[in-house]
TrEMBL record:
Positions of the UniProt region annotated as Disordered: 1-26
Biased composition (Basic and acidic residues): 7-26
Lineage, opening ranks: Archaea, Methanobacteriati, Methanobacteriota, Stenosarchaea group, Halobacteria
Name of the featured protein: IrrE N-terminal-like domain-containing protein
Length: 171
């Protein structure tokens, strides 16, 4: 059994989530300190991220609230009311949550922007999992923890609990 496999077998789902939480929250704290604000719109602008708004309304039951790729965040405005309703928050707060989540992908995906050095998260992910679906899952969770940390008290406890149960996964 390889080192990676040994680690993987020892790490249950809970400890994977703990690692994701540790990374996500630490990154949110770093960003807030670096820019002296927790306003997600300002943070995205300061990070040089482009924000696009799309009115695409999805197909069938596929819900996509936002995406991140190569420095561009796309917000699917027509779908965000669904997330707001699921979480019981205003549409503007749901929009901020999606933006924060996608900004999390940007921050966690430093390698795509700076190429070197690779972000500590990616290094850790590669050594633990050797690159796999688990890596993606961990990044998703880290982005979600990043967003929850960044929104802080603005996010009601009820919405926070729903997010922890996987209601309102953003992608
Ligand atoms: Zn995501």
């Amino acid at each position: 059994m390889s080192f990676g496999e040994t680690l993987r077998s020892r790490r249950g789902e809970q400890s994977t989530d703990r690692e994701a939480r540790r990374f996500g929250e630490a990154k949110a704290g770093e960003l807030r300190t670096a820019h002296g604000t927790d306003n997600v719109w300002e943070l995205a602008a300061n990070e040089g991220v482009t924000i696009r708004r799309s009115e695409w309304s999805g197909v069938d039951r596929l819900r996509l609230f936002g995406t991140y790729a190569d420095g561009v965040i796309t917000l699917y405005d027509a779908q965000i009311p669904v997330l707001a309703e699921r979480l019981g928050v205003s549409e503007s707060l749901a929009t901020e949550l999606v933006l924060a989540h996608e900004l999390g992908h940007h921050v966690l995906d430093v390698s795509a922007v700076e190429r070197t050095p690779r972000s500590p998260l990616r290094e850790a992910l590669s050594s633990w999992f050797g690159g796999s679906a688990d890596e993606r899952e961990l990044e998703e969770r880290a982005a979600q923890w990043f967003a929850v940390e960044l929104l802080g008290d603005r996010l009601p406890d009820t919405a926070r609990r729903k997010l922890r149960r996987g209601v309102g996964d953003i992608e």
